[in-house]
Amino acid sequence: MMFNGRSYKAFPKFGLMNKIITTADGSNTLFNETIGEHYHSTHGALQESKHVFIDAGLKHAFEQFPGQEISILEVGFGTGLNFLLTLSECKANDIKLNYIGVEAFPITKDELSQTGYEKYVPAEIWTTLVDNYEAALTGQVDLFDDQKLFILKSKLQELKPTASSQLLYYDAFSVRHKEEMWTDEVIAHAASFLVPGGIFVTYAITGKLKRALKSLGFTIQKLPGAAGKREMLRAIKG
User: Fold this and answer.
1) Burial 165-190 (b: 16+ CB within 10 A, else e)
2) What's the CA gap between 149 and 112, in Å, rounded?
3) Angle separating helix axes 184-191 and 207-215, nearest 10 degrees
4) How many Cα atoms occupy the beta-carbon half-sphere of 182 within 13 Å?
């Protein structure tokens, strides 16, 4: 099957919701046929995740909160790629990690197993996510001594805010396909989970998003975007 000039391979037993695609950097993403959008950039799933969420987000959080346990909230857990790279980076730097992913429609364990992301992290990182994925959908799991994961099968709007996260990965589907995730009200709700000085990072940048965050007391930082995008946004909570 072809889409936008790229070939798809259907998962043999997953029905019609998700299909796998190889992106421009050789890494895979999923195409959600129900929503009509890819989980990552077709210019490169791996490079986007590293550029936006690891380099601009996590590494900046290490500097902002030195020596502390990092608590991360991800809006749009998706394929787990951001989490895998984050866990790998935290393990390598002896940083404790408390990671909460919000995902209203989680992919299956079989879909996760066929993403090919085992090529990008140490074997123990990959294995522990696959082995604990389904358990993490029902409650917090301890992956290693100082690494915790909980995937909330819920919409962000349904969660009661608690300002406990130092870093927020906002990786929702785009405003074109999920406009409700980019309203001022939902952005304000997401921001309420961050502690003072907390970091809001996303692949997107629009005037509306910048104004919404500024109105909440955030300092806006425009950064070079991942491949295929001119800019991205990082914002620091005042």
Assistant:
1) bbbbbbbbbeeeeeeebbeeebbebb
2) 16
3) 50
4) 19
Judge whether residue 54 has pLDDT over 80. yes
DSSP 188-232: HHHHTTEEEEEEEEES---HHHHHHHHHTTEEEEEEEPSTT-SEE
Spatial distance between the Cα atoms of 140 and 149, rounded to a whole number of angstroms: 5
Report pLDDT for 169: 98
Dump pLDDT digits (tens) for 166-189. Answer: 999 999 988 888 899 999 999 999
Residue with tokens 């961050």: 194
Which tokens is 137 given? Answer: 């959908």
Point out which residues pair with 30 in neighbouring strands. 20
Other CB atoms within 10 A of residue 130 CB: 16
Q: Are the C-beta atoms of residues 88 and 121 closer than 8 Å to each other?
A: yes
